[in-house]
Amino acid sequence: MASIVPDPANVTVEKVTSDDSGVVIQARSRQTEARCPRCGKLSRRRHSRYIRTLRDAAWGGQPVTIKVLVGKYFCETAGCPRWVFSEQLPKLAARYGRRTTRLAERIDDFGLSFGGNPAARMIAKTDGKVSRHSVLRNVRRSARAAKPTPKKLGVDDFAFRKGRRYGTILVDLEKGEVVDLLPDRTKETLATWLKEHPGARVVARDRAPSYAGAVSEGAPNAKQVADRWHLLDNAGDALERVLIRRYGSLKKTAALLSGAKVENRTEEKGSGSAPSKAERDRLARRERRLNRFQEVMERIQKGMGQRAVARELGLSRATVAKYARSGEFPERAARMSRSGLDPYREYIARRWADGCRNASAIWREIKEKGYPGGKVSVIQYCRLSFGGRKSAEAGPPPVKPPSARSAMWQLIRPLKKLDADEAAFRKTLIENDSVIASATQLVLRFQRMVKQRRRKDLAQWLDDAGKSGIPELAGFAKGLEADRVAVENGLSCKWSNGQTEGQVNRLKMIKRQMYGRANFDLLRLRVIHAD
Description:
By secondary structure, the protein is of the alpha/beta class. It contains 21 helices and twelve strands. Helix 2 (about 115-125) packs across helix 3. The longest helix is centred in the middle third of the chain and has 25 residues, at about 275-300.
């Protein structure tokens, strides 16, 4: 019978009863001496006994209560402020605890895995009611061993609130485990952690200067490895900046493919019909963006710095920098939404070209071909794509320029993964803009070099990019040169931040599970210790 309690060596079970309230276990302590919590001296002089009531893990859905008879002892140390103290049974329950260690560990496991409210609901189904506050208190005060410093360390940032506050995640790349979370991503915090936890031999990181400086200061003997995914991402960002600066080429390419003149977006609705409320709102938003762009450009032309312009107009530095790079007002790309009518687009365009202006009739025709949608969707599709009943010309809908980001992906993605329209846009754009063509070739070369780990090709690529005359890629090459040792290690070393990125994704899931409201200490415990 002694095995039914968590500490059978020091606790004897005397009686087990069951009633409507659950199972009650009556037990007593076997200990004949106890250690004073103040002076630490053993005492055999018993003062009295009392019954300590503890809640234990349920049996078969029945709540269990352990009533154990424990002793109180006199402290025999002269001058000790504690005259009388109670004996402790640490394997049975914590000091002042109302639950057994077995139940506390169960609550701790549930709390780490699911959080406060979900854990409380699950525990209530098996071990009785417990509040979410009790679950979280139990998680916070449970003792856990610190994880050892890994030899292969991954470092990356994560967002508490994107664009405002960030932290740092540290990952053991060999074990695939999170070692620690830091409350910010500053150089000083990471350098301090590395000094307090020596032993890292390889540190994989992104190209942030703060992390590079922190590793150099906190672990000077560690081999720094620039993460390959971040290298490819940075190259794509450089190409995107080229496309932002030359966004006019995207508009001209779209116009060439649609066989139309390049027109101002405010003049797109030439059908004579009154604009809808949504169109009026869109034009008003464009007017506000245009005014803001003109204010930025006026100040930059007067010699103001970008930081000063951002402060004066209340804009972000990224917005001001984008306007300065563009040289002309960057129109927003049309939203490329997917429609259930896309499979029937060619048929609708052909019927429209044949002179059919009755959208209801077209709806009835495509419904026979399997279209499951309603008539209103077809009417709206015809109005937006072909100009409605009053359209003077019939033909395929005009090709709209993609955003710089979308165009970047079209340029670097393998041709076999592009559809016919994307492939045609890519071919026409490269043929008509030599700067974009050169930038694309350099970025594709960089991709192949990184993916194939051709470290010996880095020097030639840096030289070609620096002499390309494309400021965005020349600046990217200059940044790589400043971090060249880590970049070369990234092209030759097997370690990368892939495991770290996966742990960041897991961290986001845990943070969202807690609705983003958990304090840092609780988030850290769950990310590090939850299975």
